[in-house]
Amino acid sequence: MINKNNDLENELIEKEKLAEPEAVINDVEVIDTLEVDDEDAEEELIEEDADEIAANILKMKSEQISLENFDWGKYNNKWDVYSVDERSQLETMYDKTLSTIVENECIDGTVIAMNKREVVINIGYKSEGMVSLNEFRYNPDLKIGDKVEVYVESQEDKKGQLILSHKKARAMRSWDRVNAALENDEVITGYIKCRTKGGMIVDVFGIEAFLPGSQIDVKPIRDYDVFVNKTMEFKVVKINHEFRNVVVSHKALIEAELEQQKKEIIAKLEKGQVLEGTVKNITSYGVFIDLGGVDGLIHITDLSWGRVNHPEEIVQLDQKLNVVILDFDDAKKRIALGLKQLTPHPWDSLSAELKVGDQVKGKVVVIADYGAFIEIAPGVEGLIHVSEMSWSQHLRSAQEFLKVGDEVEAIIITLDREERKMSLGIKQLKPDPWENVETRYSVGSKHKAKVRNFTNFGVFVEIEEGVDGLIHISDLSWTKKIKHPAEFTQVGEEIEVVVLEIDKDNRRLSLGHKQLEENPWDVFETIFIVDSIHEGTVVEIFDKGAIVALPYGVEGFVTPKHLVKEDGTPTKVDDKLQFKVIEFNKSAKRIILSHSRVFEDVKKAEDAAHKKGASDENKKAAKKVKSNMEKTTLGDITNLSALKEEMEEQQKKAQQKDKE
Question: For site-directed labelling of 192, which of 82, 87, 116, 432 has its Cα 20 to 30 A away?
Answer without folding.
Answer: 116
